[in-house]
Design goal:
about 400 residues; alpha/beta; 16 strands
């Protein structure tokens, strides 16, 4: 069975800088043919006029309704989602959609790194009826899993894909979840409708999620308003038979961790938790689940210039950064997938990011950690460290170990 056609949906609202970076990274995908659908506010929806993007103007603060607008505009049999504050590795879409050659697979999810570009944010989880994630031991290879005692694989909204007919039959995402648990509710409804269907966990399908700020959290990921989360939690638990008290306890522990870390002032804890409970008030009976969506997929225009490209690592000391960055910019301009590794003679932890010049840049100490699980200090010589990072980076940038 050949690979089915694919659409990628990006939803954005008033974050044009982050969106611009996200779109640029998508133009570097090694998937040879996919449609890009952008659902964004009127000012952002026209970003990158040089690209044949299917554009949907949408300016409501409701992630579920925005995603449904993207589904309606998508032409692919497979629909993938990534957030505007995320950057996809070049091999992301090819790997994420590969499991759909098996007709029993209805959904897939990859793995997501945090804002430092290296630490894990989410790898493999199941969703409980309480709206809380339960970790699945991650594997090196793809896993194909069914729901387990009613708990489906959790597909993080910034790194997931579904069969479009599946989404249409379920009615898409539920607009009752304007923020938080939107994809988790979809996972639960899909598991109830098709308890034997498979969801793929694809370790090689990686994105970096920056967690940009919005109306409910700061750019550092600290909550400023928990009312929407409280409302979504109450609806989720009422619909799926969960206990909202467990979710409230989880939020309290989260706030305490932020306070201990010095990121949240103690006087903020009470108002935030009261906001959570206020949002959950009065939802004893959940709204009805969505009915099926209808609509004929429009004709697709594929994003040009995607497909396999030569990949290259440029590495050296940080004191040579000016020259090496110019070299990386030239190579990226020539169409290569470029990673720039800048090392300092220190033990500083590494950080990685995708820069506007169109390449990935990783900076850190020669003896510092770069992979989750690394020791805080490891004594390397420069050639050996470059070899080690080349092998690690190459797994998602397209060159062999």
């Amino acid at each position: 069975m050949g690979r089915p056609p694919v659409s990628v949906i990006v939803v954005s609202r008033h974050r044009p800088a982050a969106l611009s970076v996200c779109l640029q990274a998508l133009t570097l995908q090694d998937h040879p043919a996919f449609q890009l659908v952008l659902v964004a506010d009127p000012e952002s929806v026209n970003l990158r006029p040089d690209l044949p993007i299917r554009r949907v103007s949408f300016d409501e603060p409701n992630i579920s309704a925005a995603r449904n607008a993207g589904i309606a505009a998508a032409s692919g049999e497979i629909v993938a989602f990534i957030d505007d504050d995320a950057v996809a590795e070049p091999t992301w879409l090819t790997r994420l959609t590969e499991p759909f050659t098996d007709p029993a697979v209805l959904a897939a999810t990859g793995v997501t790194r945090g804002r430092d570009g290296l630490g894990w944010q989410v790898r493999a989880e199941r969703m409980t009826r309480d709206g809380l994630a339960r970790t699945i031991p991650p594997g090196q290879d793809m896993q194909l899993l069914r729901p387990e005692q009613g708990e489906p694989v959790s597909t993080l909204g910034t790194n997931c894909a579904f069969r479009r007919p599946t989404l249409l039959e379920l009615g898409g995402f539920d607009p009752a979840f304007a923020y938080h648990l939107d994809e988790s509710d979809l996972n639960m409804r899909m598991a109830a409708r098709w308890p034997e269907a498979l969801t793929a966990i694809v370790p090689g399908a990686e994105v970096v999620h920056g967690w940009a700020g919005d109306l409910r959290r700061t750019g550092a990921g600290v909550p400023t308003d928990l009312r929407a989360i409280g409302r979504s939690t109450a609806i989720f638990c009422a619909r799926h038979g969960g206990d909202p008290a467990r979710a409230a306890e989880r939020q309290w522990r989260r706030l305490l961790r932020l306070m201990v870390a010095g990121r949240l002032d103690p006087p903020q804890l009470g108002p935030l938790l009261r906001g959570f409970h206020a949002g959950a008030t009065g939802i004893a009976v959940p709204p009805p689940a969505p009915v099926s969506m209808t609509g004929t997929a429009p004709e697709a225009t594929h994003l040009p210039g995607t497909g396999p490209r030569p990949a290259r690592l440029i590495a050296g000391w940080h004191r040579q950064a000016g020259r090496l960055r110019a070299q990386a910019t030239r190579a990226a301009g020539e169409g290569q997938i470029v990673t720039l590794l800048l090392l300092t003679p220190t033990m500083l932890p590494h950080r990685a990011r995708f820069v506007s010049a169109g390449y990935w840049e990783q900076v850190g100490g020669l003896w510092g950690p770069s992979e989750p699980g690394d020791s805080s200090v490891a004594f390397w010589r420069l050639p050996a460290r470059i070899t080690r990072e080349s092998a690690r980076i190459g797994r998602t940038r397209g060159w062999p170990d």
